[in-house]
Amino acid sequence: MTATAAQIAAIHAEAKRAGLDEAMRRDLMQGVAGKRSARDLTALEAGRVIERLKGLSNGAQRPSKAARPPRVTVSGPYAAKLRALWLSAYNLGVAQSRDDAALLAFVERQTGLSHTQFLHIAHDATKAIEGLKAWIAREAAVNWPKQKDDVIGMKRAVILAQLSRAPDRAVAAFVLHCEDGAELDAIQQRLGKALRPRSRRARAA
């Protein structure tokens, strides 16, 4: 028997109470039931997921402004590249938050590396960067350039992936010849504003 509509609603509600974003909720379901979508759970599996979420959310309260910790920011020699990739994921509708805290949590969850490692140690930074690129390529069909230091090529690749979901021939033609990184960033952000609501609706379906 598959999970009921009430169970699916409870999973989303308890995850929200526990302060989990979508990626964290899906990771928890993967760990508990081996599935990343609530709609794929059996009723028994959904029950286990709900119990786990209740354990996380029991007594959870939104902290007051005075009690909230200071905002987490990314720093170090690899911060700029990691942040640029994360913003690309956000503009593709793959990442739900553009905050540095979300970036740090994602990379640590995916690689097992703490931010003190992947922000300062070259080998670990490469692992984090390539892990992010692989995730973005898988989720948004981004075709990264072969040259890893081709910054303009990477910006173009993200925009072309955006345009595959919202075609615009004029923009595509411009992007293929544009060498201005700031202009490409502006295009990526503009397209991202249109794509993010679509991605949220698709996830909710």
Summarize the structure.
The protein is mainly α.
Structural account:
With 205 residues, the protein is mostly helical. The protein folds into 2 domains: 5-57; 79-204, no CATH class. The chain has 10 helices and no strands. Helix 8 (151-165) packs antiparallel against helix 9. The protein is globular, with a radius of gyration of 19 Å. The two termini are 21 Å apart. Residues 59-70 have low confidence and may be disordered.
Task: Give a quick set of tags describing it.
205 residues, mainly alpha, globular, 2 domains, single chain
Task: Provide the number of structural domains.
Answer: 2
- Mind describing the biggest β-sheet? none
Derived structural class:
mainly alpha
Give the overall shape: globular
List the helices and strands and how they pair.
Layout: H1 5-17, H2 22-33, H3 43-57, H4 79-91, H5 100-111, H6 115-118, H7 122-140, H8 151-165, H9 169-177, H10 181-204
Helix pairs in contact: 1-3, 2-3, 4-7, 5-7, 8-9, 8-10
